[in-house]
Amino acid sequence: MQILNEKYADLQEVAVAYKEAYNTNPPFPNIHFDDFLNPAFLDQVLEEFPDLDKKKDKIYYKNPNEDKYASKGEYSFGPNTRRLVHFLNSQPFLEFLQELTGITEPLIPDPYFEGGGFHQIKKGGFLKIHVDFHKHRKMNLDRRLNILIYLNKDWDDSYGGHFELWAKDMSKSITKIAPYFNRIALFSTTGDSWHGHPDQLNCPEDRSRRSLALYYYSNGRPSNEVDVSQKGRITTTFADRQGIDDPKMKRYNNMVNLVNDLLPPILVRTIKKFRNT
């Protein structure tokens, strides 16, 4: 069974057609495609999506910034999911991403799925506005691009869970993308690519917000994309929405950022690993 929807079969043609839109969409380079994958194939991937709450080998993020579950590596993937992610990490797809985004440094996939893989947010869960870590902690490569594949059939907008892209000065939400089934969102990750799902999910108890995340890296990046003081940051940086988020969140983040800036990277990795188990 083919992986791509027929209308996206010629990836290079799609990249050429949409690269201007990708690089000019506000508030920073981004785009989303609907029905990007063969829906029958994606149905098989969805069938393999586990309830991460019930899995022993998972990550549960629970703090003032986030309440969500994530898988570890590719060992929890079924055969169809593994086939999908291997395709998304293949040469033809990497060449599509290069053409679409205009990133000139060769893109490198992440076989370890550091922070990626299956993501699940349950009723009441959230992911506050943030910029992603800049360095892969194992490969020491620069993070450049995120892809999110949404797996939520019959999703009602009243459930919330929209993916939000915020202005670079964190003044307001610019773009909101609903997490509909077979919608794929892509965006460049820099020092001010603020994004998240900041409000509590309002879905029924028997539903959850499900997605598959893949991240891409390069060996080096343009010097203007990340603040010089944060180039090696291996933890996510969160920011509060002034007048909206609980003040406790800001105090928590100030402490986390101070720890990240003062402690040796190896100790930060150890703390991060312990916190997320």
Descriptive account of the structure:
With 277 residues, the chain is an alpha+beta fold. It has one domain: q2cbj1_9rhob like domain (Jelly Rolls), CATH 2.60.120.620. It is 26% helix and 26% strand. It has six helices and 13 strands. Strands 1, 2, 3, 4, 5, 6, 7, 8, 9, 10, 11, 12 and 13 form a 13-stranded antiparallel β-sheet that branches. Strand 2 (58-63) and strand 3 (66-71) form a beta hairpin. Helix 2 (39-47) packs across helix 3. The longest helix has 16 residues, at 247-262. It starts with 10 loop residues before the first helix and ends with a helix. The relative contact order is 0.18. Residues 269-277 have low confidence and may be disordered.
| Overall 3D form | globular
N-end to C-end Cα span: 36 Å
Number of domains: 1
What is the number of helical segments per DSSP (H or I, 4+ residues)?
A: 6
Structural class: alpha+beta
Overall CATH class: Mainly Beta
| Order of helix and strand elements from N to C terminus | HEHEEHHEEEEEEEEEEHH
Proportion of residues in helical segments = 25-40%
C-alpha Rg (nearest Å): 18 Å
Overall pLDDT level: 91
Chain oligomer state: single chain
% residues in beta strands = 25-35%
- Please, what is the CATH homologous superfamily? q2cbj1_9rhob like domain
- Poorly predicted spans: 269-277
List the main descriptive attributes of the protein structure presented here.
13 strands; 277 residues; Jelly Rolls; disordered C terminus; globular; 6 helices; alpha+beta
